[in-house]
Amino acid sequence: MRIDIITVVPELLKSPFEASILKRAIDAGHVEVYVHNLRDYATDNYKSVDDYQYGGGAGMVMLIEPIDACISKLKSERSYSEIIYMTPDGETFDQKMANSLSLKENIIILCGHYKGVDQRVRDSLITKEISIGDFVLSGGELGAAVVCDAIIRLIPGVLGNETSALTDSFQDGLLAPPIYTRPREYKGMHVPELLFSGNFPKIEKWREDEAYKRTQRLRPDLLEE
Q1: Helices H, strands E: what count in the chain?
Q2: Is 78 within 8 Å of 103 (Cβ atoms)?
Q3: Least buried of 4, 131, 153, 208, by fewest C-beta within 10 Å?
């Protein structure tokens, strides 16, 4: 998979891809991530990428010209499955969407900034709009990093144990069950005895029941879906 991220503040996207699982995935060749500075595609000497909005109102708007130039250059070099725009009014990102995007070959992620982008960008260049929640950030960079993390970890070979991602919360519509590790007893708190029984069918049934109970308690809306 190749991910191209378009931004006006590329510095915000350095650290997420220079550590932990994402860095290992890149180093191992499971994914390529490229960050493009939108100012490199500006058409004036001031490297302007925004202007005042027509009709008046507060907030600057990202210009269509540099965005179109950057996306057009990338599309001239390869085909893309999705061209994503990170925006608060996009479709809410979830595990189902992460699973779907992890199967794509090449994607572009455009990070919104200022008041947003000229509507013509959304009408003519974007294939998918994503929000990571009902709140507003200073820009789409942090949201893009969240999306990348969620989809890259699903790519085969990225996680050490291929089944690990399959047991994450939301993969089967439920929250994950409780998990335990050493020590067996700590300050009077004990690990359930069943987990030491070696009876794996019963352990699996216990995990399923606990996942359901946790979901019912914390996220009953998932059961309604």
Answers
A1: 7, 9
A2: no
A3: 208
Are 84 and 108 spatial neighbours (Cβ–Cβ below 8 Å)? yes
Cα–Cα dist 129/110, whole Å? 9
C-alpha distances in angstroms, 134 versus 40, 45, 46, 181? 31, 37, 34, 35
Nearest to 174 by CA among 95, 99, 91: 95
In degrees to the nearest 10, what's the CA dihedral of 89, 15, 83, 94? -50
Q: How many Å separate Cα 33 from the centre of its chain? A: 13
Tokens representing residue 133 in the block: 């929640």
pLDDT bracket for residue 171 (50, 70, 90): confident
- Provide the token pair at 142: 């942090």
Upper half-sphere CA count for residue 152 (Cβ side, 13 Å): 24
Token pair for residue 217? 């308690």
* Cα of 13 vs its chain's centroid, Å: 13
The answer, yes or no, to whether residue 215 has pLDDT greater than 70, is yes
pTM of the predicted model as reported, rounded to 2 decimal places: 0.91
Kind of pairing between the strands at 106-111 and 2-7 = parallel
Distance CA 192, CA 190 (A): 6
Question: Looking up tokens 């998990």, which residue turns up?
Answer: 179
What is the C-alpha radius of gyration for the chain, rounded to an integer number of angstroms?
A: 22
Q: Can you list the domains of the chain with their CATH numbers?
A: 2-152 (3.40.1280.10), 169-224 (1.10.1270.20)
User: Which residue type occupies 186?
Assistant: Y
